[in-house]
Specification:
The complex is a heterodimer of chains A (388) and B (397).
Chain A (H helix, E strand, L loop, with lengths): L2 E17 L8 E13 L4 E4 L6 H8 L7 H11 L7 H21 L4 H4 L6 E7 L7 H13 L4 E5 L4 H16 L6 E5 L6 H14 L2 E5 L7 H10 L3 E4 L6 H9 L5 E4 L5 H14 L4 E3 L7 H5 L5 E6 L8 E3 L4 E2 L2 E3 L9 E2 L1 H8 L33
Parallel strand pairs in A: 4-5, 4-11, 5-6, 6-7, 7-8, 8-9, 9-10, 10-11
Antiparallel strand pairs in A: 1-2, 2-3, 4-14, 12-15, 13-14
Helix pairs in contact in A: 2-3, 3-10, 5-6, 7-8
Chain B lengths: L2 E17 L8 E13 L4 E5 L5 H12 L7 H11 L7 H21 L4 H4 L7 E6 L7 H15 L3 E5 L4 H15 L7 E5 L6 H12 L4 E5 L7 H10 L4 E3 L10 H6 L4 E4 L5 H14 L4 E3 L7 H5 L5 E6 L9 E3 L2 E3 L2 E3 L8 E3 L1 H7 L28 H9 L1
Parallel strand pairs in B: 4-5, 4-11, 5-6, 6-7, 7-8, 8-9, 9-10, 10-11
Antiparallel strand pairs in B: 1-2, 2-3, 4-14, 12-15, 13-14
Helix pairs in contact in B: 1-3, 2-3, 3-10, 5-6, 7-8
Classes of the chains: A alpha/beta (388), B alpha/beta (397).
């Protein structure tokens, strides 16, 4: 079997609800998405719900090659990106290609990816995550209540800009999850908005009221000393890593005990890279937690990672380009089925329809880093979020 | 697809040379092993060679975890095996049993996919860098010279390893012999040495420093005890030669002190470390720390399959470029100093059952194990060179 061609589809999608964090609290429901489709000479094609124009440069490395040789293709792409590094646009494209190739590899075996990766477990434990600074109290409660009713016992809430509001909103999340679970796990995420000392002050104050499972990105992604200092001064685990690119980026964090829980995803040099990070963390007895993603396909990889905690589920409704995805959530787990590959089937008609839709406005994301980040807290302005 | 049967067959065979290291200058000429077979309801056989001393553990893991399961779920089965031994630890005989079963499961997984193991692991059919390994300290100078010449001439090796440790003058002389045999293929052969934990860190530093005056060495293997992460680190910091270590560790967790203290410059990895699943984990962790790995000797040269599927492998050890016994054949070929991967499905090992029946034994005889004499007196303290009696016995074999 040979790789013959690829197609990159870009489209704008209106999600069912807006997403926003401490850098973009006003939120937005428009999202720019990409789908990479890699074709073979035997009709099997591989899908990845990301990608960009850099795929064009990388495609010559895999063209006419056997798609099953995923590791070799990954390594050749990494070698190609040597000088500029496995980062930025090339990194995104490289990750997309690796994911699409694993999709093909599993489809050739006529099995879901979780089986190709040697797992016998189609159930991946999940936690609910709002990414919803823009949601008002009622919407926030409803989101976590829905997840709680689905058996989810852990939730992560975006915070960082207003201490009293943050405390109230953490309480809302707790209350919604406590409806079905004694002592639900609560995680907080300030998305690198705080300085190291501000993080220590804020998290300690929060911990006077709540038992926090982890605090995410309490300092900058590369600040291994700052993260280490935070970890020593709070009871919660420090979780970080979502903005790192690959296993090498984790080296200073692991070597300096800067992180207690690693945020990992297949955006970190693809499925191949994600598995490397999982194994690296496993050697150091560190758990990993997979990030949210379009179509929940990280669950396909999670059940063969030896030290995986749970996967983030945001569920904002951004899978309109797919007729099938990993959307079966029950009793706190994503339950995967036998669909071959990563479990995503593209709906070509819906995709075209979205590509031809004029939404009459432009997406606000990606967010700029918010003013004051790492320096001082710039208070939420009235009307910046509808609940203020 | 389900696994429905386990078969284990012990066998022994004669070696092509007298083998041994610093701990066994008397040498041995017999080897023993075990064929472990997992048979599915569709008649596929997943095989693995090893684990002869852990048959009770293999049987127990089979009955409790493997039987009736789909062999494709090798990761989940690996995890259940490892977790079963939580309390006592998944090292020692437990590790031997887990390793041999994990390898047989991978053999099945790739046979089900109708592809060689290297392809299941995502690799391509590239040539793999390899080196010749004597494991023959008991052999005399003339014989060992002839062996290295044969390795260089017939298989094109450009790098090789020498067992050292008992007699510095002899070791220096034999390094020269190994070097001179390899120069038919390259001006700069890579020379590895291995003292098998016989020396203390300071003995290593003295002896290898003296060798470094005449030779540039590829690595010094096991220059201190396997758990002595401070001693290994001390050796690494004192020598120009890289420290290569890890061969006698069993699990990923065992490597944590090495990783944290950077005790070794090259990490030894093998399928004997909780199987292929474990070996890949260790390689990934080493890669995260920018440490290269090397894969040890393996029946069927199955490590050549792994070498192309991990990001940081330097070279693979070859004690036997061709099968040591007629009991099995393999489809990895050694040519021009590289391992050439084959296309047979799975590990690429074929069993000759007639020969197996002839070689079959009920129990392993005491002189056939890999280290029949245990650790040699003087180890870690001072060298005791081979006695006249030991030399006489070795040369008679």
């Amino acid at each position: 079997m040979k790789i013959t061609d690829y197609r990159l589809e870009t489209y704008l999608e209106q999600m069912d609800r807006p997403l926003g964090d401490s850098n973009g609290p006003e939120g937005d429901d428009l999202i720019v998405s990409n789908i990479l489709i890699i074709e073979t000479d035997e009709g099997i094609s591989g899908v990845a719900p990301l990608g960009n124009k850099q795929v064009d440069n990388l495609f010559k490395i895999i063209e006419n090659k056997d798609p099953r040789e995923t590791f070799t293709h990954w390594q050749n792409m990494i070698r190609y990106a040597f000088k500029g590094g496995d980062e930025g646009e090339v990194h995104n494209a490289l990750s997309a290609i690796d994911i699409a190739l694993w999709d093909i590899k599993a489809k050739i075996n006529n099995e879901p990816l979780w089986k190709t990766l040697g797992s016998d477990d189609p159930k991946c434990k999940i936690y609910a995550s709002d990414i919803g600074y823009c949601l008002d109290d009622e919407e926030l409660f409803k989101f976590f209540e829905r997840m709680s009713d689905n058996g989810v016992d852990s939730g992560k809430v975006k915070i960082g800009l207003s201490f009293d509001d943050d405390i109230r909103r953490i309480g809302i999340v707790y209350e919604a999850l406590a409806k079905n679970h004694k002592r639900p796990r609560i995680m907080i995420d300030s998305n690198e908005y705080w300085s190291v000392k501000k993080a220590i002050q804020s998290i300690n104050k929060i911990e006077e009221k709540f038992d926090i499972f982890w605090a995410e990105e309490p300092a900058r992604r590369w600040d291994y000393r700052g993260l280490n200092l935070v970890s020593k001064n709070i009871k919660a685990a420090v979780a970080t890593g979502e903005n790192l690119n690959n296993v090498g980026d984790f080296y200073p964090l692991i070597d300096n005990q800067s992180v207690d829980i690693l945020n990992v995803s297949s955006y970190q040099s693809g499925i191949t890279g994600l598995r490397q990070i999982g194994n690296f963390a496993y050697a150091y007895e560190l758990p990993v937690t997979t990030m949210n993603c379009i179509g929940n396909y990280n669950a396909q990889i999670a059940t063969s990672i030896p030290n995986h905690l749970m996967m983030e589920v945001v569920d904002p409704g951004r899978e309109k380009a797919y007729s099938k995805w990993n959307n079966n959530i029950d009793d706190g787990f994503v339950i995967m089925d036998e669909t071959p590959g990563i479990g995503l089937i593209v709906d070509e008609n819906k995709l075209k329809e979205m590509q031809n839709t004029d939404y009459g406005r432009k997406p606000k994301r990606p967010w700029f880093r918010r003013e004051g980040a790492g320096l001082y807290i710039k208070e939420l302005e009235k009307k910046e979020v509808k609940w203020k | 697809m389900k696994i429905i049967e386990l078969k284990t067959t012990l066998f022994e065979f004669q070696l092509d040379r007298v083998m041994g290291d610093a701990n066994s200058p008397r040498g041995r000429t017999r080897s023993a092993s075990c064929l472990v077979e997992l048979i599915t309801d569709e008649g596929l056989i997943g095989l693995s060679i090893g684990g002869g001393n852990s048959i009770p553990q293999i049987q127990s893991l089979y009955e409790g975890i493997i039987k009736g399961k789909d062999p494709r779920s090798v990761f989940s089965l690996w995890k259940k095996m490892v977790e079963k031994f939580f309390k006592g630890g998944h090292d020692g005989l437990a590790n031997d049993a887990i390793s041999v079963l994990d390898v047989a499961l991978w053999d099945l997984k790739s046979k089900i996919n109708e592809e060689p193991l290297w392809k299941t692991l995502g690799a391509s059919k590239k040539d793999v860098n390899v080196y010749a390994s004597d494991i023959a300290l008991p052999m005399g100078d003339l014989e060992i010279g002839n062996w290295y010449k044969k390795m260089a001439k017939n298989y094109g090796f450009k790098s090789a390893k020498l067992k050292v440790g008992l007699d510095q003058d002899s070791d220096l002389r034999r390094l020269e012999i190994m070097h001179d045999a390899l120069i038919m293929n390259t001006k700069d052969p890579i020379l590895y040495i291995d003292s098998n934990e016989y020396w203390s860190p300071k003995q290593t530093i003295r002896k290898v420093s003296e060798m470094e005056e005449r030779f540039s060495l590829g690595w010094i293997e096991e220059p201190a005890r396997r758990w002595d992460f401070l001693g290994l680190k001390k050796v690494s910091e004192a020598l120009k030669t890289p420290v290569c270590a890890g061969e006698n560790l069993d699990t990923l967790g065992d490597f944590l002190p090495y990783f944290h203290h950077r005790s070794a410059d090259v990490i030894q990895v093998s399928h004997g470390m909780t199987g292929i699943t474990g070996a890949l984990q260790i390689a990934d962790a080493a890669y995260g720390l920018e440490l290269p790995v090397t894969l040890g000797g393996s029946t069927g040269i199955i490590h050549a399959h792994l070498a192309n599927a991990i990001p940081n492998c330097i070279t693979v050890e070859i004690p036997h470029p061709e099968p040591e016994t007629k009991v099995y054949e393999w489809d990895v070929k050694i040519e021009n100093g590289y391992a050439k991967l084959g296309d047979k499905h799975g590990l690429g090992i074929t069993i000759n059952y007639e020969e197996l029946a002839k070689a079959k034994v009920n129990k392993i005889s005491s002189g056939s194990g890999p280290s029949p004499y245990g650790r040699r007196p003087g180890a870690g303290l001072y060298e005791i060179p081979p006695s006249k009696d030991e030399i006489k016995e070795a040369s008679s074999k």
